[in-house]
Hints:
The chain is mostly beta strands. It has a single domain (25-317), classed as Porin. It has 3 helices and 17 strands. The protein has helices at residues 25-28, 149-154, 173-176; strands at 34-47, 62-75, 80-97, 100-109, 113-118, 122-124, 128-139, 184-195, 198-208, 216-217, 221-235, 238-251, 255-256, 259-260, 266-279, 283-294, 303-317. It has a 12-stranded antiparallel barrel. The protein has a 3-stranded antiparallel sheet with strand order 10-13-14, with no helix packed on it.
Amino acid sequence: xxxxxxxxxxxxxxxxxxxxxxxxxxxxxxxxxxxxxxxxxxxxxxxxxxxxxxxxxxxxxxxxxxxxxxxxxxxxxxxxxxxxxxxxxxxxxxxxxxxxxxxxxxxxxxxxxxxxxxxxxxxxxxxxxxxxxxxxxxxxxxxxxxxxxxxxxxxxxxxxxxxxxxxxxxxxxxxxxxxxxxxxxxxxxxxxxxxxxxxxxxxxxxxxxxxxxxxxxxxxxxxxxxxxxxxxxxxxxxxxxxxxxxxxxxxxxxxxxxxxxxxxxxxxxxxxxxxxxxxxxxxxxxxxxxxxxxxxxxxxxxxxxxxxxxxxxxxxxx
Length: 318
């Protein structure tokens, strides 16, 4: 589906993998006249739903989503900056097509994003620090949307639930499409704070979707994360941070030919640990794993088992 991964930690509508546009205020800093570059990777595994007796063959379907975002940006001042995200996506799947088990993969460039960032204030003292940021931008239709043709072909055959297709397929074209063919809008905010040995952070990001190729429009989505944990400084220029992160995704219904697709809306909540480090204020890395604590248990769609996120970035000062 559409390409993108914030921390929000930097997903799912049925088997769709929502991946917020990565924009970590911790990783990039807020220093004026500084350049940053980095990469973040998210892996999400989707397993088979619970099935009624006699439908066990449908449970052999699965989807694995690999999204790597290469991002770079520049801060003109300590308040204003810009960032570009280039996502590379691979999706491996096993599904039922024409009553036959089909395995395959899709890979390539996803939808590129451009963000503009504003940091109103930074607060520092001998024992604490706090800063927050607002951002907004666009997601451009650069990814291959050809898989959405499957949605158009099946529109007349679709039953009440989007993956309750006539042949029992749980992995649809919108799950495999690398791009949407639409120009979409991104709005969000993030913050980070530290008091003595306690750290906390949070993010909120919303996507406003427009109609793309094959008359298909993904539903608007809202993604968030809140985290808190222990902050440790083994030396003057390095830190290690272990947090517990609560995150979630809320998505409205997709549309095709202007009509809602019932069952395509979704809400998923995650909980999991995150370990991060920084060195000299220039290097930043993080590793986290999320487990769903609330997800759709419908027998008509794949559901997420877990997701793993890894980030590494480098900042350069002029």
